[in-house]
Amino acid sequence: MPRHPRIHASGVLYHVMARGNNGQKIFLKGNDYEAFLETLDSVRRRYRFYLYAYVLMSNHFRLLSEVIEAPTARIMQSLLTGYARRFNAINRHKGHLFQGRYKAIVCDRDSYLSALVRYIHLNPVRAGLVKRPGEWQWSGHGEYLGQTQRKLVDPGPVMAELRSKARYEAFIREGIKDPYRAKWHPGDHAPFLGSDRFVRKIAREKAPPAASRRVSLGELLRKIAVKAALEPEALRRKGRAARLVDARDRFICQAIVDQGYRASEVATFLHCHPSNTTRALQKGSVS
Questions:
Q1: 89: helix, strand or coil
Q2: CA 48: distance to chain centroid?
Q3: Which of 9, 13, 274, 286 shows its CA 20 to 30 Å from the CA of 254?
């Protein structure tokens, strides 16, 4: 099934999920959960975005976030690679930790924000791990009740609607009987959650450049080379000078994250190994 293009625009609400490679656990012990939350906090400080809910399960995690400036692709690249490095160091693990690219669904904020906060925070209850969401410490639920002080969650919009912690807690309890909702889950099969009107609006106004409208790799290379006072072809040759490496990394990040080119396309264009594009993305060198 073909992948849907990533959507990016300030104010877009995303339900994001990433799973362990081949279903493996991505959290083995308490130190892993803490390392992930520390990484998430670091990424939030680097790329400001709103986080309305999160839950960490043994083999996957979910976030409900609203972007401000940095695209979700850049945020998730930094989060996944940052945590994978820490997990590998803690557990002496080698190989891929996550299964492919993360999944994300663009949601109608006005219609689904509170409902999705409830749905995500009830994940451990639906999985049969606990009877009450407050018994699961690896979610944002406790922050809404003031039981934890991680300061990762932005409770303002939901609490403005529900008005008190007691009403929030009652709202969460009401959702325990809700059935599984497949359409609410992120995946390539369903890029939007909202009315037909919302879907048409977001697809028309927020989509990234189509192949016919995006900047060509040659033109993007020329612009970045000029800005760095380099010859464009220098970026396609081997070289380790700091100015050259910085410009090449900037080109890779903008081509993949902002223009939507595949990493393999960029690597072929630069005559380099695909691992070079991965390293550039991990640096997050685009400003």
A1: helix
A2: 12
A3: 13
**AA identity, residue 111:** S
pLDDT of residue 203: 61
Per-residue pLDDT reduced to its tens digit, 182-194: 778 776 556 788 8
- What are the tokens at 39? 């990484």
What 3-state class would DSSP assign to 57? coil
- Backbone dihedral region for residue 209 (phi beyond 0: left; psi -120 to 50: alpha; all else: beta): beta
Full-model pTM: 0.72
Confidence of residue 254 (pLDDT cuts 50, 70, 90): confident
Alpha-carbon span 120 to 133, nearest angstrom:
10
Chain mean pLDDT for the chain: 86
d(CA 14, CA 170) in angstroms, rounded, equals 25
Closest listed residue to residue 123, CA positions, set 101, 102, 138, 104 = 138
Q: Which helix (H) or strand (E) holds 37?
A: helix 30-46
> Which residue, 103, 136, 99, 127, is CA-closest to 24?
99
Q: Are 49 and 102 in contact (CB under 8 A)?
A: no
Model confidence over 202-231: pLDDT tens digits?
A: 766 655 555 556 789 999 999 999 999 999
Question: In this structure, what token pair is assigned to residue 286?
Answer: 């685009």
Token representation of residue 158: 């939901």
Report helix, strand or coil for 66.
strand
Q: Which residue has the higher pLDDT, 275 or 106?
A: 106
- The pLDDT score that the predictor gives to residue 135 is 96
Contact 122, 133 (CB under 8 A): yes
Parallel, antiparallel or unpaired: strands 103-107 and 49-56: unpaired
- φ, ψ for residue 77 (rounded to 5)? -60, -45
> In whole angstroms, what is the distance from residue 163 CA to residue 157 CA?
10
* Section 159-181 average pLDDT: 91
Encoded tokens for 255 = 């081509």
